[in-house]
Amino acid sequence: MIRDRYGGGDARDIFAKAYEFTLVEQAQTAQIYPFFQPLDSNDGPEARIYGRHVLMLGSNNYLGLTRHPYVVEAARRAISDYGTSMTGSRLLNGSTYLHEELEGRIARFLDKDAALVFTTGYQANLGTISALVDRRSVAAVDKADHASIYDGCQLADGEMVRFRHNDAGHLDSILERVGQRKACLVVVDGVFSMGGDIADLPRIVEVCRRHGARLLVDDAHAIGVLGQGGRGTASHFGLADEVDLTIGTFSKSLASIGGFVAGSRKVLEWIKHFGRAMMFSASLPPASTAAALAALDVLEREPEMVERLAKLATLWREGVRQMGFDIGKSQTPIVPINLGDEYATVVFWKQLLEQGVYTNPVIYPAVPIGKAILRTSCMAVHTQEQIEQALETFRIVGRKQGLIP
How many structural domains compose the chain? Predict the structure, then answer.
């Protein structure tokens, strides 16, 4: 082995940093390692882990459709009709009528000219941003944007600038400086995945208009959550015509995996032929495509799910806030418990899990050092009793750990 031949501490060995990284082993030894925990099963509002039932308060399955019989059956039929994979990219042999049907449905749902489906939501941001932002342009991104947006900017040939989180005034000053010499794409999350707050879209749209910048909204956590019938952030504010491109994913409300960009047909044709994340990746498997289509069917048939989710989210959000937890500016089913200290956050996660509530500890590098959070989220398929049960568990464990009075 290389370690035996060269030793773990040799700076010339590219593996040296891996051998010196012992934090995971230490956390595992102390039985407080919170990541890559294998679930026995996941039924939506409840899950089973290590042989125990737990309430699931750590999922992005906002509408709870992953177990919906109609969605599951659609995936089964697609496997029978198309097999398990297309084993090729959309560009070559990986496109089916299912992919085109899904793209048409998304475009109609969001009232856009067209849509383009990617294999993951992550790739949708990589492919879209890197195809558009060249050496003559700049991407202006919110400091709290998702990692895939930052990675898309790194893959692009153009410049990237950041503006303070949800600060349209700061964006205005940046565009005043760069917008006169370069074309600009402003990129924001619609709902921010860690804070649960909503982009200040009215003011951001106004700034983009004034400077002639194009606007891309990543609605991964807003589709199925905000707007008329779950149509996202632009719909929530009545600004659907003012957003140039909408990025979305099927791995949250739409019970599958994959991603999309929706917007002008001409722009999407460009992305289709220059977005490397699409051109050089195998296409979305038929079963995943069919599941997303079926989930969209259910959402359009039962838009009241979005209202139910909002009511339960308010119950959850206000419940933990009234206990004394700091939840920041959350306005959605994503409710962060801002604890700051990494160790306290992980211990809180473990004690909650032992008491039957599954949550997500989020520490560096997902958030800055000293800004650790416990990320929680609820679903439309939770019952009010389940939310109240989770609140009582938070109250008991929070007091025991000295986090609340």
Answer: 2
